[in-house]
Structures are given as structure tokens and as C-alpha cells.
Amino acid sequence: MFNIAIDGPAGAGKSSIARAAAAQLGFIYVDTGALYRTVALGALKRGIRPEETDAIVALLPELEVAMEFVDGEQRVLLNGEDVSEAIRQPEVSGAASTVSAIPAVRQFLFDLQQNMAKEHDVLMDGRDIGTVVLPDAQLKIFLTATPEERARRRYEQIKDTSDVTYEEILRDINQRDYQDTHREIAPLKQAEDAVYLDTTDMSFDEVVDAILSLTKERQA
């Protein structure tokens, strides 16, 4: 199996770029951030705050998190309910960063991620894919952009379905950057053998093309 690991900070466009690249390569795309968001949503639905670690750990046996691929598109299920849209709301994003630092949550989702990589050619994105989840991936990429550009992209993505402002998104991104890089368990960092890809001044298609080129080089 050929595995591609893409890591990077919140709002770097990893999900949409990885999805497009995977489709062109014929790979299965695995959005690991969606899995953590799903656990966070499950907690919020029960009235559990993200910092209530013990309550979240106790909740895990009651959560069934699954991925389905419908017409090549990834859908995320929580206890049988499709929550693919619900997990994209800003309050869920903020909670996911805190929840993902809980060791029991990471272990809860770890096996699901690794099994998918063993069974399929996958393109997987997240915060610690190249460093922890798929340390032997044939291609690792650290995908990033400035906080301001990441906030602008996220705002354009959700402005029609949410009242959140650009300033609120930028503040959330800066806070998540700090949380993700300073957490004790699997902090966000570039793997030593990862390709650094700054997309601040790149178009969507240019970034996808860069990933396709890197993949072809490694496959050769």
C-alpha cells in the first residue's frame, strides 16, 4: 500500500486539498480531524465541556465513530447519524483541539486510522499523521499558510452558513495553533522527512498539482 501523510495547522486547507488530490490519484482520503471533531461533537451533545477529561473518557464506550465513502466522498457517522456538516461549526472545531489532546481519545481512534492505511492506498491528513499515526508513510507533507490567510479561507468557506466573523476565526486559529503545538501528547510538528509546503501564495490547483508531482516522484 502507498500512504501519504499530510500534516499542518488548522485552516491550512488540508481537507479540501487532500480530498482533491486523493480523487485524482485514486486513493482513499481519510480526514482524521473529522474523527476528533466527531468525538468533540458527541461530548457537546451530552453537555460535556471539552476540558472535562474524565467525563469524555467515560463517554467513549458509548460513541460509535465510523467513516463511509459515498460516491467517493467521505461521510462521518456518529452512532449511525451523518454528522459531516455538524462537525464543521466553529464551536466544534475549538472543542476538537482540546479533546484531541486526551490520550484515551487518541487511542480510541488510532486503530481505526492505522487499519485503513494497511488495507488501502490512503491520503490521510491531520496534526500528527507523519510523526505518530503513519511514521512509515512513503510521502509526508507539512502543509501550512499564514494565520491570516488560513482565517480568510475558513471565513469564505462558512460565511454563508454561520454568523462568525473573520476576527473570531483568526482568534480561534491562533489559539488552536498554540494548543496544537504545545500539547503534551502528539503535538503538531513537521516530521523530519516531510516536505514543507507553504501555500499562502498558491492557488488551490497549484497545491494539488504539487502533491501529485511529489507522489509521482516517490512512486517512481
Descriptive overview:
By secondary structure, the protein is of the alpha/beta class. 50% of the residues lie in helices and 17% in strands. The chain is built from nine helices and eight strands. The strands form two sheets. A five-stranded parallel beta sheet has the order 2-6-1-7-8, with helices on both faces. A three-stranded antiparallel beta sheet has the order 3-4-5. A hairpin with a 2-residue loop joins strand 4 and strand 5. The chain starts with a strand and ends with a helix.
Short note summarizing the structure:
The chain is α/β, with parallel strands linked by helices and 220 residues long. It has helices at residues 14-25, 32-45, 53-59, 90-99, 103-119, 129-133, 147-158, 166-182, 204-219; strands at 3-7, 28-31, 65-70, 73-78, 81-82, 122-126, 139-144, 195-198. Strand 4 (73-78) and strand 5 form a beta hairpin.
Structural category is alpha/beta
The number of helical runs is 9
**Secondary-structure element order, as H and E?**
EHEHHEEEHHEHEHHEH
Provide the low-confidence segments as ranges. Answer: none
How can the largest sheet be summarized? 5 strands, parallel
Strand tally is: 8
Overall geometry comes to: globular
Distance between the termini: 14 Å
Instruction: Kindly report the spatial arrangement of strands forming the biggest sheet.
Output: 2-6-1-7-8
What integer value in Å does the Rg equal? Answer: 16 Å
Helix fraction? Answer: 40-55%
Mean pLDDT: 92
> How big a fraction of the residues is strand?
15-25%
